[in-house]
Specification:
CATH class: Alpha Beta
Number of strands: 12
Number of helices: 9
Radius of gyration: 18 Å
Order of helices and strands: EEHEHEEEHEHHEHEHHEEEH
Number of domains: 1
Shape: globular
CATH superfamily: Glycoside hydrolase/deacetylase
């Protein structure tokens, strides 16, 4: 098993070309994946194979797709204030399926705290209410985009108060105690499970792609019955393999690990 997991950020819009807009990149990348004869599979299927509950053939010749942060740009078409109309990621997936007839699916790792998102909407976007969670249940019901956790508040540096005990923000490496992990990870899972029932959260993506030994070697493997996760993803650029640590699975990030279709071809090869 060697499955590349490709990651996009819908908030990454600073222009309207491949290098400056993850929406433009996603459109081109989906077509490239299809031209190369690769399949798109749900990220949960990759974890199923890794855990030995599904055969490797389920993810043979396949890639998986994930989105981070969970803003409206994942789902809604938006009129961007400087770059004009933007097709939401969900619309791009639907367009691709209609164009090719191919199966398509993505997993959106969302920042869970409503209060945190309300502030991030002002500090990271433009304060138009574009970070709501109204679309998450609809997405989960449709089955096009699965909703999973990107932590309670991302321990984001623009928040006045985060779950981190000493307010050491802007990194997830400081989430290194049981109390902090419960506040950032289990609290998020509990909230999502209540919001999206009967769906149950099972996957996690580390904010900033950052982890630490406590989370990877202690909290996540020793407290499965509490946090209820099956796997966690970082951002080391390599494919998921049978030997991968399920509490620190790799992903490739658009704009960091590839910046053009030619570079993505190298990743997929």
């Amino acid at each position: 098993m060697r499955v590349p997991v490709l990651t996009y950020h819908a908030n990454n819009i600073s222009g309207n070309d491949y290098a400056s807009n993850d929406h433009v990149a996603l459109v081109e990348d989906l077509r490239l994946i299809h031209r190369k004869g690769l399949r798109i599979v749900p990220l949960s299927h990759v974890v199923d194979v890794l855990l030995g509950i599904a055969p490797a053939s389920d993810v043979e010749n396949a890639v998986a797709i994930s989105f981070d942060d969970g803003s409206w740009f994942d789902w809604h078409d938006i009129e961007h204030p400087t770059c004009g109309p933007q097709r939401g990621f969900a619309g791009i997936l639907r367009d691709f399926a209609a164009e090719t007839g191919a199966f398509v699916h993505a997993t959106s790792f969302v920042i869970v705290s409503p209060g945190a998102r309300a502030i991030l909407d002002k500090t990271c976007l433009i304060g138009r209410g574009w970070w709501g969670d109204d679309w998450w249940p609809e997405a989960q019901r449709e089955g096009l985009i699965a909703i999973e956790s990107h932590s309670w508040d991302h321990n984001h540096h623009t928040l006045p108060i985060t779950a981190q005990r000493d307010q050491r923000k802007g990194t997830f490496r400081t989430i290194d105690t049981y109390a902090d992990a419960e506040a950032e990870i289990r609290q998020a899972n509990d909230w999502l499970d209540a919001r999206l029932a009967p769906h149950r959260v099972s996957l996690f993506a580390y904010p900033y792609g950052e982890s630490n030994d406590y989370l990877v070697r202690a909290y996540l493997p020793r407290h499965e019955s509490e946090h209820r996760l099956r796997a966690a993803f970082g951002t080391k650029p390599r494919p998921v393999e049978v030997s991968s640590n399920r509490w620190l699975l790799p992903r490739y990030v658009c704009g960091s690990d590839w910046k053009s279709p030619t570079e993505l071809e190298t990743v997929l090869a």
